[in-house]
Write a structure and sequence with these properties.
A: alpha/beta; 3-stranded antiparallel sheet; 11 strands; B: 218 residues; alpha/beta; 15 strands
């Protein structure tokens, strides 16, 4: 089945104000940067964004924050964004901080038809407030619910016309689980190839989870913390 | 003399055992990778999706797609593997990672740890810390004994919002190595030249001090 759309405009058709979006990436690594730029252009507002991080002030989801397009963030770590912190402390932005492993598993569960699960992460902390606790094997666990989204927007290294995806290195991160959990999943890829060119043995996300795929126009791939050692 | 950050990292590195998979947190814990004892093999896991993490890349060889959980550019060693975030935390929650080393703002004598939030002040989020401390069999905390105001961070009860309960087994500070059991801190070693009296005076929690407290060997 051909999932190819011609560009980012067509890919994001149907995204409206007030919707819940999942966006892949860890820090600035593996984020759907073309789609984020398009969301800024579309001026959609009151978004609920599920994403591990919130970008930096002038890149990634930080661009949507600057334009005040986000109503609520569901994330695990938002430490690199001053505008985020300002909006959160002033109460303009609603924020749900959840443990990273629970965030990943809640997305996976959402895509896998599991409505909720018990995890030890967060027991005894404010994350557990209001949540059911049960003891398994002598250890307390809390009930966490699945997450889904109107649109999941992911970024892959390579994709084919069927929507099969391959990620590169640590740019994989949350993308596969979010691809599973979107009612409509949009994949932006660096390389788009005809069906049959990707080895089926090495597909990370099978095309069944992807509804729309396009080749991103350009990828800046900004580095957040450039750490190097001198050449000998 | 009290240890510097490198000293703390060197002391923690002595806790590594052959064949372990290890997750190192941001800050002092990251430095532990530089002091692996000779003759043992350990592999470093980073929760953003890599096993077999290597040193920082040579200048000009950075890859935006290859970072650690601190968002720093890294390299991989032979035999490395990449995976998604759900698989990564399956390794952590499923106790396939043998040791977690992380920093803390406060630790209490029942093994509680606080390291993610100062109400009204610092809102960054817990990242993977809550998952790591909830499940790791073996958690070592690398931290300073007191805060900038000179107040002890080794406490009877944590005052900050918790990251995990009853999970910390060992604490290494610039002054001492302490074990946590039976709702007390046990002083195991002191930093070279640091007196037991100084450690006692800077520890708010209940501290069990044996007759002889050896100096750390670094």
């Amino acid at each position: 089945m051909n999932k190819v759309v011609k560009n980012v405009e067509e890919a994001l058709t149907g995204v409206e104000s007030g919707m819940t979006l999942m966006l892949g990436g860890f820090g600035l690594c593996g984020i759907p940067e073309n789609s984020i730029a398009q969301l800024v252009k579309m001026k959609v507002k009151d978004l609920t964004c599920i994403s591990n991080n919130a970008g930096v002030d002038d890149f990634g989801l930080g661009l949507l924050l600057q334009e005040k397009q986000i109503k609520k963030m569901i994330s695990s770590y938002v430490g690199e964004n001053a505008e985020f912190e300002r909006q959160m402390l002033s109460g303009e932005l609603e924020v749900d901080l959840i443990p990273q492993g629970s965030l990943a598993e809640r997305c996976r569960a959402g895509g896998a038809g599991i409505p909720a699960f018990f995890t030890p992460s967060g027991f005894g902390t404010e994350v557990a407030e209001g949540k059911e606790v049960r003891v398994f094997n002598g250890k307390p666990h809390i009930l966490e619910s699945a997450l889904t989204a109107d649109f999941a927007i992911v970024k892959a290294w390579k994709g084919d016309t069927e929507g099969n995806l391959v990620f590169k290195a640590t740019a994989c991160n949350f993308n596969p689980m979010m691809a599973m959990a979107g009612k409509i999943t949009i994949a932006e890829v660096e390389e788009l190839v005809p069906a049959g060119e990707l080895d089926p043995n090495f597909i990370h996300t099978p095309g069944i989870f992807v509804q729309r795929i396009f080749k991103g126009e350009k990828f800046e791939k900004r580095i957040e913390q450039r750490t190097v050692r001198p050449k000998k | 003399m009290a240890l510097d950050k490198i000293g703390i990292a060197k002391r923690i590195a002595q806790e590594l055992r052959d064949g372990w998979y290890v997750n190192l947190g941001i800050g002092i814990p990251t430095l532990v990778a530089n002091y692996i004892p000779e003759g043992i093999e350990v592999e470093f896991q980073s929760e953003n999706g890599v096993l077999g993490m290597g040193p920082f890349p040579f200048e000009g060889e950075e890859d935006a797609d290859l970072i650690n959980a601190g968002k720093q550019t890294i390299t991989t060693l032979k035999g490395a593997a990449f995976f998604d975030s759900a698989t990564s935390f399956a390794m952590i929650r499923g106790q396939h990672v043998q040791l977690t080393v992380l920093g803390a703002m406060e630790v209490s004598q029942n093994g509680d740890i606080a390291n993610w939030k100062i109400p009204g002040k610092m809102v960054k989020g817990m990242g993977g810390a809550m998952d790591l401390v909830a499940s790791a069999e073996n958690i070592i905390v690398a931290m300073m004994h007191s805060n900038r105001e000179g107040e002890s961070k080794i406490l009877k009860t944590c005052s900050l919002p918790l990251t995990g309960v009853g999970c910390v087994k060992k604490v290494v500070t610039e002054l001492a190595v302490m074990e946590i059991k039976d709702n007390k801190f046990y002083l195991l070693e002191r930093a070279p030249g640091v007196t037991v009296e100084e450690i006692i005076s800077k520890t708010e929690g209940d501290l069990v001090v044996p007759d002889f407290v050896p100096e750390m060997k670094l």
